[in-house]
Amino acid sequence: MRCMTTLFSAALILVAGLLTACEEDSDVFPGETDTSSDTDSDTDTDSDADSDTDSDTDSDTDSDTDSDTDGPIVMDCSACPGIGATVPNLMCAIDICDESVVVDYDYYSPSGAPLAGTAEGVTHFGTSPDLDPQLNDSYALMATGPCTGTDHSGGLTGLGGGALPDPFSSDGYDTFDVLEWSMTLTAPPGANGFEIKYVFFSVEYDEYVATVFNDKFYIFIEAMSTNAGERTVINFTECRDPGAYTDFVCDGATMNYCDDGEPYCYIAINTSLSECCWYDSCPDGPATTDISDTGYECANGQGQDTALKGSSTGWLYTQWAVQPNETFKIIFHIHDTSDHIYDSEVILDSFQFLGTVDPGTDVIE
Q1: pLDDT band at residue 300, thresholds of 50, 70 and 90?
Q2: Where do runs of H (alpha helix) occur along 120-268?
């Protein structure tokens, strides 16, 4: 049975360092000399307990001005080690390797879950070429359980730690195994936005579509050009089965980049971009992305052994607007909903600043 646990106090576990020369698995970036101790006194306390429930409001942002650059502003990551479990490794793995744009970074669990094994920069996940890196030769994994290997059922206890409410959900169910990776960045001149590419996986597919067992992957932004700096979810899409489940209805008077009056879902099994295994006879067709040997392969039908059950979204991208030279925070957040078990995971890759940006989330063709 799916189990619920009681609320514990959240604890933050910090992993941080200055941007300095590093070898694989070190705590610093290339390019500077390490003059700090191993402890970063700048503690990030803006966790899931954020009381802002308007997750999609946005100030008016002109995303196509003040730039002579149309395409991506690519960082040179040739000397940056994107393999390993330190936060600098994770940053390099998603192609953020220019110390001039990075102000601060952290990886922690607002719910007090142990961090070991939940995030890593790797050359590949699974064995399929469909999951090859999108840029350079590595990407980062984040998971609500072990991020490598093929057993993602979560046992009966999950990572551990307590429960936290989800201020962006209206269903009232707590979150567990909450992980967040935050970065404070300064957009370079000519950058009117950014893009991140990713694949969301979950063992929740397809059995728990339209239920409260709805693990989520949020991308938050905290930027004055978006919602006056309030924490805002920027990755949402149409819903897989809007008659059965939605996360919010767009209010065109206060929300940007959505259609007024239309229902939307955050990135989870209920997004319309999820690849179907068998739910509702897969009216739009079955999964097409090969995710072999990830442990999230599709089951053939309800009730199949959970050791081989799940699916993914395939490769998605999210673009969002910021102002040139603006300093902002981006947070990658993943959690289990309603219990600790049945893991979810995300591949993150190819973070790039853009001269011209079209905000929203869609499939990479």
Answers
A1: low
A2: none
Q: What is the pLDDT at residue 172?
A: 78
Which of 291, 264, 257 shows the shortest CA–CA distance to 275? 291
Q: Is the pLDDT of residue 107 over 80?
A: yes
Question: Which CB contacts under 8 angstroms, 24+ apart, belong to 288-293?
Answer: 288/314, 289/128, 289/130, 289/131, 289/199, 289/314, 289/315, 290/128, 290/129, 290/130, 290/131, 291/126, 291/128, 291/130, 291/131, 291/199, 291/201, 292/126, 292/127, 292/128, 293/126, 293/127, 293/128, 293/150
Nearest to 57 by CA among 234, 191, 247, 272: 234
- Note the pLDDT tens digit of each residue in 8-30: 233 333 233 333 333 334 344 33
Distance CA 323, CA 305 (A): 49
pLDDT of residue 299: 74
DSSP letter at 135 equals S
Query: What does the mean pLDDT of the chain come to?
Result: 81
The DSSP letter of residue 93 is H
Among the listed residues 68, 100, 95, the one whose alpha carbon sits nearest the alpha carbon of residue 79: 95
Instruction: Check whether 214 has a pLDDT greater than 80.
Output: yes
Q: How distant, in Å, are the alpha carbons of 63, 213, 216, 348, 362 from that of 200?
A: 27, 15, 9, 9, 13
Among candidate residues 227, 231, 249, the one with its CA nearest the CA of residue 239: 249
What whole-number distance in Å separates Cα of residue 272 and Cα of residue 274? 6
Top mean-pLDDT range of 11-25, 48-62, 221-235, 305-319: 221-235
Q: Which of 230, 216, 196, 205 is nearest to 268 (CA)?
A: 216
Burial environment of residue 284 by CB neighbours within 10 A (0 to 12, 13 to 18, 19 or more): exposed
Q: Where are the beta strands (DSSP E) in the chain?
A: 72-73, 102-108, 119-122, 139-143, 175-186, 193-202, 216-222, 232-233, 236-237, 248-249, 263-266, 311-321, 327-337, 344-354, 360-363
**pLDDT on residue 213:** 83
What pTM does this model have?
A: 0.81
